[in-house]
User: Fold these one by one.
Assistant:
Number 1:
Amino acid sequence: MCGICGKISPETSQKKETVKKINQKLTHRGPDFGAVLDIDEMAIFAHRRLSIIDLSELAHQPMQDLSKNYTITYNGEVYNFQEIKDELLSYGYRFKSRSDTEVVLYSYIHWGVECFKKFNGMFSLAIWNSKEKELLLARDRFGKKPLYYTLLNNEITFSSELTALLEDEEIKNKVTLSIPALNHYLALGYILHPLTIYKEIYKVEPAGYIKFRNGKITEKKRYWEYKDHFFTETKQKEKEIRENLEYLFDKAIKYRLISDVPVGAFLSGGLDSSGVVAFTKKYNKDNLHTFSIGFSYKSYNEARDAKIVSDYLKTIHHEKIFDKNLDRNIINICISKYDEPFSDTSLIPMVEVSRLASKYTKVVLSGDGADEIFAGYETYKADKIKKSFDVLPGQIKKGIASLLNKVSRETNKKVSPGFKLKQFSKGLPEDYKYAHYAWRELHSESERIYLIGEEYKEEIKASHPYFTFKRYYEEVKEIDYLSQHLYVDVKTWLTDDILVKIDRATMAFSLEARSPYLDKNLTEYAASIPSKYKIKNNGKYILKKMLEKFLPGETIYKKKSGFNAPVNEWFGNKRENEFKFFNKYVLEQKGIKINE
């Protein structure tokens, strides 16, 4: 894994030091090697390397083809690079390294943007065509690897992280707060792509590429559509589906064990990470290191569950238990490494387990993506329950919703029943699409208008995050409700919350995270599986059936608990001391308006 950045400008001779500063800011993403390359009179690329495959200097970046017409700076892993390399060898291409970077570069030279359809992996990249004076930016299917860009002063500047772009003083002095992005954050706790917290900076979309010439976008497309695979529902029986899943998951694991450094795994003790460890153990019988986090607060603590799986599979297990007083250094890391406002509290344990793992390895496997691919969240059961209320008249539904909201009572337990009831009641009178959105809404529109300011009311209304959800629902309106929800959650929650969280937490400690459940072949096949095999009483039915012969029953069928942090317990009784700096004067000095 690595960090990439660069600048396309009519005045590159004056910009090299700026690109150096941006690249230096990305050192944590690639501490093994760094370089800045003046390509020509218009382009400068830079790279920070975390050496995983082909540890030699031959794999250093930025990398050029033999003609020096094409230059690449690349972050990621294309796991099927060897098969693609064999195909390119048959066409007469020759390679100087064993790296996947060189394969990616020559794939683009040979197939153009069609090459991205061949890649099975995670990546963000930039390629400069010196002859055509054309820049290409591209990103993997689910957006595992970040890529930001801005067009200012007839320049294009890009980077793996948003904060690195602010090392450019001209950019820093011109960016302004995005009200739509702030609206998203207050509603959801994260910002939907392609927006960022700054108006002038954007994210390259997952499964998307952008071409630029003369400081302008000339082409912007998606090279892959996840939705297409929901429309081709498999007719296979349960046994055959189970066998196919096992084969594809096994292949996904084997791909992600390709490395010239040791590979470990996160292990929470839940179904998803335990499945990853069970299959990984088949290929690493004696030296598999696993890592978990626990809490002193019982309702949050999964350390015992992780230990059960570790003992069962005989891994070399490492755990860290949070005590009742949170280490403030963790908060500092979260603030410094997360580019934008982000309120998923599970980032705190994710940061700590990443720090733990980085002491033993440079690569870990994770269980991310299984809930969105196989329907693991309780929200999907709630959607099903909500559907049974739809036969009632609207006024009766509103009355029930009001009653549920009144009787709901939040507790300090992990994702309390009171909170769930409150979120469910918000969507009860609405259609199924808005009800699913409402489950994750943190602040209502009226609350957001109050917090941001009445003068922004129209902009807040026009940028309601539900409009983005609704657009995704429209793309798949012909398929069943559960499949629609899964598709929308992948396009929103998975991409802009879950994958952001794991990338920033792991890369803060120069650790590469690989997600087998997000394998191209596995996700495409999973989308084709009928919903009746995903939820049957509880979620992830078919995944659980597939894992029955690899894991103990208590692991497979234990109640899902999620990966959250006891924030209320840490801060609940200390808010006056912990947040005394959040006063009107201090915030207004920072340009933040307070409505009282």
Number 2:
Amino acid sequence: MAGLKSANAKARKQIRAVHLDLKGMPPLFERLVRLPKLFRAAGFNAILVEWEDMFPWRDRDLRRPGYYDARQVRLFSEAAEKQGLEIIPLVQTFGHMENVLKHGKNEKFREIPWMNSDISPLCEGARERVEELLSEMFDAFPSSRYFHLGGDEVGTLGRGERSLRYCSVHSKTELYLDYMIPLLDFVRSRGAVPLLWFDMLAGGNDRELAYLAGKAELVLWGFGDRLEAPAVRLSSLGIGLWGAPCFKGADGASSELPDLKRRFDNTRNYLALGKKVRLSGLISCGWSRYTSLRQQCDPLEGALDSAAAAGLLFRGEQDVTEEKVLKILEDAGFLETFLRSKALLGELSEWKEIGWRCLRSALELAAGQERLKVRKDSQLAWYCLKMAGILEGADALKLRFHKHFDPLYGAGSVEDFLEERIIPLRRGLELMKRDNRKFGHPLAEEGYRKVFGIETGGIQCGTEPISH
């Protein structure tokens, strides 16, 4: 346990980590190894890396196409070390286990048979399977002083058949700890300090939570101004605490850009919390998907200003200005690409909002016409033409997106990101056409073209249907 004692001694210096979430829009390796220089310049001294399916797992089913091989993982670690940055690996061990549980051979480990999110804490072999994953990650990062086990949002906890029987006698917190404490001991036996998201333990009583003191440190996440009471309570029990605001990925599951004011305020809330309870570390989270089976959000390249601002705040900068942030990006060689990335993502966000407004208006119109028993009206045809024009505009936007982002992320990730936003509107147009056939006039669409000279691309964004 000498390694653990050494880690605890060094931990007196607060960790200031940035979260690199690789389960969505993972950068190509050539871009990945440049990030530590930027993160160091921004004021971070550690990187929390959520490798997910980009790690070279021995089980090939857990890898995605284009995963980083063992040599690339090592080179990234060396690049971080060169910049004085610690690597804190994150491996999901309880909730958010989709990358493991989605495969048929691992279905037996699910808490609920038809849900691939959470592992069953009482299933024979489940914890051993998780320990195998932890061992692989430790082999890649043997000197990591901290190791994050996830553990958040276990929505099915206590709901499986075996767990229901257990919870008829014990609490859900006891069930959680019975499963998790051996994993904490496993991490500690490798000389690292285990970290856990705090949310699943917030409802535990003092007796239950006392088991965690000295075994793990809890990472508070969410809105810092709501966390003072649980933070004070957990700290009074001798449990080490970290704070985790977000620099991106917290403004909607399909967001393109972070809301900078909300992210800035979120970080400041945690800094204020740190004046009331001792925080051993801070992590600026940057989610790229809410789970590995959801759509991608907020690509890192468009959120580098938010990350740099968080780093400056973490290191105690009082006056964080746009000029200071952009200077950091410029000095690290990221400014030009960032500005172009942010502009394109903003354009996509605006395009998407226009499309959804059109779809919403058309669906509401059709609902009203259905209630009024309207037949052979012309307005739905106008909305169909408008949506067709909006979708035509996406083709040119996609070309510019691929030209800029493919060298950063690869064509496959970029195409996925775009189609996750375009496909719903294509499906929406089909629904609009169905309503138009039901409620609209069969001559209306052609009439708009002949009488008013309107083509699909001729309807300007923001205009309303021609009055009748």
